[in-house]
Amino acid sequence: MIANPTNTFETRANLSVFSNRIQSPKMALQNFRNIIQVYPQWEASLFDEHFFTAGVIPMVEAARKNGTMVNSQQVTSAWADQLHLNTASRNELMKELAPIAEQIIAILV
What we know:
Elements: H1 9-18, H2 25-36, H3 40-44, H4 49-66, H5 72-83, H6 87-106
Helix pairs in contact: 1-4, 5-6
């Protein structure tokens, strides 16, 4: 089961930073939890709440400011960067993760 963010200072702090920019940061986080619960192996591989609040949300916000959109390749690449994967593993895992990344992006746009 995914940890409750009210027990995590870092998650609360990240949500407060984004509260002025995301229509409903709590709803976005809940939607993320609903999606990731179906894919526990990805949560265990650091595609988790911290990556969502500290990685994906800022990426989407920066793209909005620039008048662009984030795509699944950018999200999966950012995730893979934190794991320092070799090229073969990186490409294979990014391809597997892309449909989930698309769902995550959709809850923020």
